[in-house]
Fold:
Amino acid sequence: MQDRGRASRSVGLPVSDTLADIERLMRDYQAWLRDRTTLRNVADLNTAEVWVEITTPYLDRHNDALQIFAKRDDGGFVLTDDGYILRDLEASGCSINTEKRRDLLEMTLNGFGVRQNNGALEVHASPDQFPRGKHNLIQAMLAVNDLFYLAQSVVFSLFLEDVPPPPKAKKTKSAKKKAGSAKK
Structure:
């Protein structure tokens, strides 16, 4: 165990009971995740391909459930957000049109092994790697969704909050004389 400010030596706690509790809680979490994930066939009207829509219990910044789409592809699966995340960012005023923002997007996607394909976040996975691919796509969607905080209006608001206004200049005697003579 990494030292996180806790004693790392045994203090007589019933470790096996705790381990058993955590194992049970992990099973409960897996059941919760399975119960709150829905699947449904959807057809792409442009290509007549059948995709499976996977609605997850994970929420975006609008508190909407994240959805991904999967289809068989070359012995494996392609999983995609169908362009939802980047379209939503653009619609919310967060354009990824500068070099630094594009670099940040690519760095984020690369960290999860996800690529961008015509504005859609996408991952290819073998049947063995499907769970990991699905997890990485969802993680990438959540991370890219957080780029919203780089929207110009958000950055400007934070700037105004963080940078105090300059102090008001005190009028000097010569400034007061000029102001007084201007009134006359």
